[in-house]
Amino acid sequence: MVVAVLLFSYFKKFYFKETVLLFTGNTAFFVFGYFISEAPFIFLLYFLFYVFHERFIGKFRQYQFVFFASLLLFLLFTIRYSGVYIYLGVGFFWLITILIKHSFPLKKDLFQVLLFAGIGIAGYLGFNLYIYGSFTGENVRGTLQQFSSVYLLRNILGVSAVFDPFIMIKPASNSFASLAFQIGLMIFDLLLLFYFIQLVRKKKEVIALDFHQLLWVVSGVYAVSLFVSYYFQQIEEMNVRMLAAANFCLFFSFLIIYFKNLKSDAFIFGLGSFFLFFLTVYALKTPVNYLNNKKQIESQMPQFSHKKYLYNDEKKAEVSLTTYHIPIIGKTFNYQHTNNQKGEIKQSIAGTINPQIKWLKIDTIKNKSQVLYTSELILK
To answer: Which residues span the membrane (predicted)?
Structure first.
């Protein structure tokens, strides 16, 4: 998919340099390297960017724009239900234009896109209700999340990372040190946002401002909607995977604006190359250990083929610490990697082997025989 996007960008002359750098960012790197449904979701989102951009600058005719934009919005929803937040973002942008920009020429086009995509989404939901008895599987979801000030802070920190193209790290724990480090990153992210705002003010006369405003609105609606959804559905915390689309929108907008009237691209390409190398090294870690762990878990999975749900019940088990040594100053320190705990390792590998199994954040399933607990998997 990455190659397809790069080739498309090159031959269509659609911000090729910007697209190359887009894939050096944290979101694209992990989405296309690790996650199942997010990869095609972001893949289609990129082409939705293209369709809107070409219509905004007058290269697409009305019927082309309405057909492709409606189809892509519908397909995004069929891949991930969070695609409805992209749809809502476009709808909110349309509402803003009819209330504020009385001379906006594409109001009718956007309305038709929302109408046809909405019909498709409504039809899909109706089919789900008729066949499965629920719109989006809400009848098998967990109970409402209990309010916790700590997790509210963690989610706010996660959402703030949307402004950061390269560093999106969720707190490893609820310890003071971990949260303090994340707050420091949030301050840095807010500085990036301030720089972005200054960049827009400086170059707003030479960019397709309507297109960028669409990306900003979609990103904001997507992030806020997910944040609210956390407390009404059993979904993950705000992290790279959950906020991938919001970050992708902002990063692409930033790159396009940054390259306008740019004298030299050496710095941004150097920065992108560094983080691509860093993310690659970080992702590889110890591949021998991963392959060994996968071999152990894979041999056990057939006996659990009837399980529908996967739950990590080892969150309070013995903590695994990674020791780092800094040679120049001769110091060592220990760090608790969230994804390097035994329960997390088992859960991620089991989920990769059986992509159909549903992950549980809270064990609310009444029939426990349907749940695969990580403690049932043996990892030496």
So the answer is: 20-51, 85-104, 111-131, 151-169, 176-197, 213-232, 244-260, 266-284
